[in-house]
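Quick one: structure for this chain?
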Amino acid sequence: MLSFPQVTAILAFTSAVVAAKPIRDDTASTTFLLDQPPGSKHLLTRPMEMLRVKRRYNIPVDEKLVAAAERQARRMRETFSLELEARGDGQGVVGMTPQDRYDSGAVASLVIGEGEEGKMFRMLVGTASADFWVFSSLQPKDQLRGHRYYIPDESKRMQNYTFFQGYDGGSMPAEGLVYKDTVTLGNLSTTQIFAAATNVSRGWLDIPNYDGIIGLGFKDANSITPGPQNTFFDNIRPSLAAPLFATCLRSHARGSIDFGYIDTEKVDGAITYIDVLEDGWGVWGYIGNGFAIGSDSSQITQRVLRTYLDMSTSTMFTQPDIVAAYWSRVTDAHLSDEEQGYIYPCNATHLPQISFSVNGARQLVQGDAMRTESFDKEGKWCFGGLQNIRGGVDFSLFGYNFMKDRFVVHEIQEGGEEEGWGLRG
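Got it. Here's what it folds into:
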């Protein structure tokens, strides 16, 4: 175990562990419990999300998908008002919660600035991003409705540095100037270089329950120029008892991210470790080795599955024959040409389980994790939570609905990166 003081932050949006992995020691740790604010009523619809994923990875987009995403975006705007949610009382209780009632991603509260000048923001947490940016007073006023925003101090600006991230193939850009300020997440504080937005696209304005992004991916993917900057995890890692963070996400309830240690009370059974896929994408990923549809006793079909994880994505995407086989077990479920994805009757009483093998360990996903919102006014049809990206893509992208209800360790050592998988206790 490293000799650094153990520092732990638990972000609430609320085992047999290898001995070398540190566990919590109250005599050498500081634990900050974060509360869970009310969940948002905002819905990030699945066609919108599929469109973003396709554009992000430069996959051809059918105009029918664009139309489906726009149609549901209009319905969403008509249904929900862009009201700023209550943000807590500022007494050291910070929130992390699923961003909507269908667990479409994790939102954490953090403070930017020191002392009385510090201001709390709600940030979308992503493991497939290395960027840190926040809404700011540098943006046009009409972009700030429903968001808290950072007021930059010119003395903290990083001269000649800029930020630009196209997102979704350039369809949802965010750009800004770069500043250095104190960031506090739970009880962890560091000097962070990040972007204060000067302009963002309409897509970001339609999502009022967060004020920016904090990425926990790898520095290689950071979008600040002239050179990539450290992520928040990079900056706090030297002060941690161990260079890791562990996610314990839950359905419709408080979850957590622990920095610097493994909380054995959150793990049921052994943790299976696997090397992280190193391919320059800057995303936490691995090579899976099979899948099974049905009960947890179903035989695993062996297959090499290049897989990436993204907490800020709600849907699971994998290979077309796996997705087709899954939905064939649900009465009346089908691939909709109009919606450009698999849809199923919202009143379906049973959705099958599906498992994916990680280094030989079965990771079972309950059928209810595939349930999502209805997209028609009658509430008859729902868009499935398991989809195929299509376009000849040879990788899987697993989102919040895969990671929830399990314990995942993300660790960086001198010899490389690894992930650990266990069942949530």
